[in-house]
Amino acid sequence: MNGQTLWLLAVALSGVSSIMGAVNIVTTIVKMRAPGMTWFKTPAFVWTVMSAQIIQLFGLPALTAGAVMLLMDLSFGTHFFDPFGGGAPVLYQHFFWFYSHPAVYVIILPIFGIFSELFPVYARKPLFGYPVVVISSLVIVGLSAIVWVHHMYASGTPNWMRLLFMLSTMLISVPTGIKVFAWVATVWGGKIRLTSAMLFALGGLVMFVFAGITGVMLASVPVDIHVNNTYFVVGHFHYVIYGAAVMGVYAAIYHWFPKMTGRMYYEGLGKLHFALTFIGANLNFFPMHPLGLQGMPRRVASYDPEFAFWNVIASLGAFLLGVSTLPFILNMVSSWIQGERASDNPWRAIGLEWLVASPPPVENFEVIPTVVAAPYGYGKNEPLVLGQTLATDPLSSESNGSGTEFAARG
Ligand SMILES: [Cu+2]
After folding, report:
1. Is residue 233 part of a domain?
2. pLDDT of amino acid 377
3. How far apart are CA 304 and CA 286, in angstroms?
4. Cβ(258)–Cβ(190) below 8 Å
5. CA 172 from centroid of its chain's CA atoms
6. In 3D, which of 344, 387, 44 has the Cα closest to residue 201?
7. Which run of H or of E encompasses 159?
8. Does 104 reside within a domain?
9. Mean pLDDT in the chain?
């Protein structure tokens, strides 16, 4: 009982702190962008981070309230979720999933931003459909608020409600699919450089598409009721959270490593890391789908012999995933200590951060830059030479004529 009370207190407190964090981040993005950085000149990554934090703003109060109510039930004799006192246990599921489905988008939206930043750089092409890609993040935010009951098809939910949430859940694959098509169109016909960052971004995208397909399957009420509480759900979720999210974070670490540390990483070790991760993740998580379809329940410590084959493969994949972190750690530590010095913009990448030294100086910019061109607004045949200092801005009185203008066009 003590443990549960402390845990609930922790959930409530971290809920409050995350709400405060979301207020801070959204306010910063709305109010403190560099001069000239209009909404459609704002990097896709910033859009996705803001979208994720808007979800925190509307979702976390529900989870936090649920935690406080459960705390009251346990410690102060209330009966919110206690059927013997007139409460409803399923109500807790509503509080929980109203936040915890959108929470997946809190994790995955910034990964979408990372994909949108990296593909143009490593394919040397502008992001396809930039305005649609960034707006679709907000559409995902809106739809994510009305899908949570798809976790409760088997909780005695009435049929009309199941149907409604099946439709809303399937609908969310539309803005997500738009992004996937935009990334494919970005990479398509590009001058692709298969750096470690690009490999992880591509691998993450492939695994995300797979996760999206099983996601639409799970949105369907009859399929979900069949595989409810089985490893199929676990497999789907691991393709989202490991396949897309963790691989996306790896992609971001490699991409921004030179900027963060001022050193280049070893490409060979990075590619080894990618190969082991991609093979290990698929070996580990793919078998969960046939296992789930065969009826292996989730949240069990052991399994029946009939499930042995796929479980052995999954375990092999898990060991491989463990091993895959070794070249990564070795690469990061040794590159940071003795890697080749990084230039300001080794990838010829987009974004203001690549205009300053690597690692950036303490104040980032001596003079706050004025953004004059969109990071993705290139014409078809324009080269992707980015972030050049074009000219000083003689009209900027605050900076005494030394204001610096940055353009994304070469
Ligand atoms: Cu969900």
Report:
1. yes
2. 47
3. 19
4. no
5. 16
6. 44
7. helix 159-171
8. no
9. 90
CB atoms within 10 A of CB 299: 7
Ligand 1 centroid–CA 97 distance in Å is: 8
- Distance, CA 211 to ligand 1 centroid (Å)? 12
Domains held by the chain: number: 2
Rounded distance from Cα 113 to ligand 1 centre (Å):
20
Q: Reply yes or no on whether the pLDDT at 391 is more than 50.
A: no
- Tell me how far the alpha carbon of residue 151 lies from the centroid of ligand 1, in angstroms: 6
pLDDT at 380 over 60: no
CA of 144 to the centre of ligand 1 (A): 8
Total length of the chain: 410
Measured in degrees and rounded to the nearest 5, phi and psi for residue 364 equal 65, -70
Strand partners, 263: 341
Ligand 1 geometric centre to CA of 43 (Å): 27
| 261 and 403 belong to one structural domain | no
CB 254 within 8 A of CB 335: no
Q: Which domain holds residue 307?
A: 193-346
Annotate 27-37 with b (16+ C-beta within 10 A) or e (fewer): eebeeebeebb
352-382 exposure pattern, b = at least 16 Cβ within 10 A, e = fewer: bbbbbebebeeeeeeeebbbbbbbbebeeee
For residues 163 and 73, give the distance between their C-alpha atoms in angstroms, rounded to a whole number. 32
Q: How far is the CA of 96 from the centre of ligand 1 (A)?
A: 11
Residue 9 has pLDDT above 50, yes or no: yes
| Residues 199, 339 share a domain | yes
Using the 8-state DSSP alphabet, how is residue 57 labeled? Answer: H
With respect to residue 86, please indicate whether it lies within any of the assigned structural domains. no
Both structure tokens of 362: 């303490």
Kindly report, residue by residue over 296-341, the tens digit of the pLDDT.
999 988 999 999 999 999 999 999 999 999 999 999 999 999 999 9
Q: How many CA atoms lie within 13 A of 210 on its CB side?
A: 23
Asked if residues 286 and 326 have their Cβ atoms less than 8 Å apart, the reply is: no
> What is the C-alpha to C-alpha distance for residues 213 and 12, in angstroms, rounded to an integer?
34
Two tokens, residue 221:
């009420």
